[in-house]
Structures are given as C-alpha cells and as structure tokens.
From TrEMBL:
This is AcrB/AcrD/AcrF family protein. Keywords: Membrane, Transmembrane, Transmembrane helix. Signal peptide: none annotated. InterPro entries: Acrflvin-R. Gene3D superfamilies: Multidrug efflux transporter AcrB pore domain, Multidrug efflux transporter AcrB pore domain like, Multidrug efflux transporter AcrB transmembrane domain. It comes from the Bacteria.
Length: 192
C-alpha cells in the first residue's frame, strides 16, 4: 500500500522526469541566475589585508655586522620583546644596517600595536650609538609591498651616492602608477 506522502514524492520526481522541457528550463534559469549573481557580487582584485606586522630598520653607516648586532639590534630587540601580544621577532644584522621584523598576534589591534612598538623603539634610542641613525618603524601593508628594491654602491662618497639616488628617485616617481619611492641608509647632509 502506497501512502499519500510516498505518492507525493513519487509524483514530484515523476513530474521532473516526464516534463523534461520544464526541467531543462528550470536548470537553465538556475544557471543564468547564478551567473548574474556572480557578476553582481562586489569583488576586489587585491583586497586590503591588515596583518599586524612591522619592520624596524636602523642604518648604522660603517659598522660591521657584528657591531650592528651588538650595538643596535640587541638593545632594540630587548625593548621590543617586552611588548605584549607578540607572535615573533626576527632580526637580521648586516654591515651598516639592522632590520627587525615584528609579528604581532593576529587578534591584536594594529594601531595600538604600532603605537606600542614606536614607544618601545623610542625608549631604546638612549641605548643606541650616537652615530646610528634614528630607527624607522614601518607598518607592513600588503598594498604597499615594494615591487623593486635598488642598492647603490661604488667608489663614490656617501654624499655623491645620495645625490645620484635622489635623481633616480625623481625619475622613478615620474613614472605613472608609482606611488612612493624611499631612500634608506643615505647619510644626512651636513653643513660645515
């Protein structure tokens, strides 16, 4: 004996099978509505992703990698490691420059983390050598990731290299689509 419920189930599926044209129209309509929905959906080719990551860069002209490590990187790391909500701190000391990458916890407030980091870096200034430049704290934004990095060296004075870099900076900034060009590690001009 067939119950009324089973009979209704049977008739629904049977109607899809027997009225195949209606079924095809229904399938085509669902596919078309899906394509319309996809095209109407807002999308961004490279959305802004806010990861709380920063780099602390400190130029120390003329210093060996060992001196940079001992005199610049370690004092900065000591202050930075006292921050809360840290995920990791990674440093690289090279001849003439210290770079420290600070990863905060993903749940940490990005603005507050950056403010706290700047405060700790400022507190470490008194522990750094006087001839080391002021540490630059840069928040990493994936929309501002550099496409190109250039390094200048040669048998020229620091002033000559900086002048060449400034000319190169102007040329690169004049290219359409270039948002920013930074010069890092060049000595400041002094009047004697």
């Amino acid at each position: 004996m067939v119950t009324l419920h089973e009979h209704k189930k049977k008739t629904i599926w049977e109607s899809f099978i027997h009225q195949y044209r209606l079924t095809l129209i229904f399938i085509v309509a669902v596919v078309l509505l899906g394509f319309l929905a996809i095209n109407q959906m807002p999308k961004e080719s490279s959305p802004e992703i806010d990861f709380p990551i920063a780099i602390v860069t400190t130029p120390f002209a003329g210093a060996s990698a060992a001196d940079v490590e001992e005199l610049v990187t370690k004092p900065l790391e000591d202050k930075i490691n006292s921050l809360t909500k840290l995920e990791s701190v990674t440093s690289v000391s090279r001849q003439g420059i210290s770079s420290i990458v600070v990863n905060f916890d993903v749940n940490a407030d990005s603005l507050e983390s950056m403010s706290d980091l700047r405060t700790k870096v400022d507190a470490a200034l008194f522990d750094l050598p006087s001839d080391a430049e002021t540490p630059q704290v840069t928040k990493i934004s994936f929309s501002d990731v550099p496409i190109m990095q250039l390094s200048l060296s040669g048998p020229y004075s620091g002033t000559e290299l900086k002048e060449f870099a400034e000319g190169l900076q102007q040329d690169i900034e004049s290219i359409a689509g270039v948002s920013q060009v930074n010069i890092v590690g060049a000595p400041d001009r002094e009047v004697r």
